[in-house]
Design a protein that fits this description.
Elements (H helix, E strand, L loop, with lengths): L5 H12 L11 H9 L20 H24 L5 H24 L1 H38 L3 H29 L2 H17 L13 H19 L7 H21 L7 H32 L6 H34 L6
Helix pairs in contact: 1-7, 3-4, 3-6, 3-7, 4-5, 5-6, 5-7, 5-10, 6-11, 8-9, 9-10, 10-11
Length: 345
């Protein structure tokens, strides 16, 4: 673009998308040509580490954060739409969560009503991807671990029957995720987010968006760290629902901490993010157990054979027995994280 505001390009694209089946291209013509000439295995697109200057403005920092989220969602969605599942769904889902975390910051600056339609569409996309990911993890990771742990051969075979049933149902959820990834609604969502991000760095943007991001970063990190501290204490004694809230708080803190860490140079950010990542991982394993229980509840009414019923019961017993060890891991991860010094202080 040689002249004018990028926001106008997004608005033009949105008007075209209302009537035509357009899609955002993620690669140039040259890149597509090279890919055809020497195809390489497609790899999931992860969140990138952003290199922000210490004096970057609020608008620029948020726009760059959002652009990385768009790339993560859009690139992985292309592969999901083509029928590739697994880690691509996971990374697209992570991109959606990161973007929702960003939008909470944007809402505080320009008003929640401005972004309400985008928030609603992100909820739709999150739901479309969520079931596919949950059922896939339960089949490939949780039930696989249960099968490996069982010594009785008949019990292993019956859990294998459960796993096969869950795998078939997971595929049905992947089909729905692929339909969402290929839908015009997703393309309109990506374009709408692009237009929103362009307004954050527009010359006509609120002057507050041109102030340095460091102050916003400190306030945001402090607020989210306090929320995690409130929800993360006493993991051994709280309910699974409360532990789930602690996990959500850890994710929300991690997403913004990874983005804003370059604004606070020093080794403490690396140590803090490492401890936070391990805590989030441990809480994620606990959540996998709770998700497994929910999926077995959904599967129960459809378990009509004796071996499937037996396999469901064995799987429930394994989930219950695994909780104590995984909870102890989460508690250790919490204690280590609690000792990490916030890098923004």
């Amino acid at each position: 673009m040689l002249q004018g505001e990028p926001r106008q390009l997004h608005e033009l694209a949105l008007s075209l998308a209302a009537d035509l089946p357009v899609a955002m291209a993620r690669a140039s013509k040259a890149e597509r040509g090279y890919a055809l000439a020497s195809p390489a295995p497609r790899e999931p697109v992860h969140a990138r580490k952003l290199a922000l200057d210490a004096d970057v403005s609020i608008g620029e920092a948020l726009a760059r954060f959002g652009s990385d989220c768009l790339e993560q969602i859009g690139a992985n969605a292309q592969c999901i739409a083509a029928g590739v599942d697994g880690e691509f769904v996971h990374q697209a889902r992570v991109g959606v969560r990161r973007l929702r975390s960003l939008l909470r910051l944007v809402a505080g600056l320009i008003g929640a009503e401005t972004i309400a339609p985008i928030v609603a569409d992100l909820q739709w996309l999150s739901s479309s991807l969520g079931a596919a990911r949950d059922w896939d993890v339960f089949a490939k990771e949780t039930l696989a671990a249960a099968g490996r742990a069982l010594k009785h051969s008949q019990s292993r075979r019956d859990v294998g029957i459960v796993r096969a049933r869950v795998t078939r149902l997971a595929h049905a959820h992947f089909v729905k995720a692929a339909a969402a990834a290929a839908s015009p609604r997703l393309q309109r969502l990506l374009l709408a987010v692009g237009a929103l991000l362009a307004t954050l760095v527009s010359p006509s943007a609120d002057p507050a968006l041109r102030t340095t991001a460091r102050s916003l970063a400190k306030d945001t990190l402090e607020r989210r760290a306090r929320r995690l501290d409130k929800r993360g204490k006493h993991l051994q004694r709280v309910s699974p629902a409360e532990r789930h809230q602690a996990r959500i708080a850890a994710k929300k803190l991690r997403y913004v901490a990874e983005v804003f860490a370059p604004l606070f140079p020093g080794s403490r950010s690396k140590d803090y993010l490492s401890a936070l990542g391990k805590l989030q991982g441990a809480l994620g394993h606990l959540n996998d157990l709770a998700t497994g229980e929910r999926i077995l509840d959904e599967l129960g009414p459809h378990a009509h054979t004796e071996r499937l019923v037996h396999g469901v019961g064995i799987a429930r017993g394994w989930l219950s027995g695994a909780e104590a060890s995984i909870l102890a891991d989460a508690d250790r991860a919490w204690r280590k994280f609690a000792k990490a010094k916030p890098f923004w202080h």
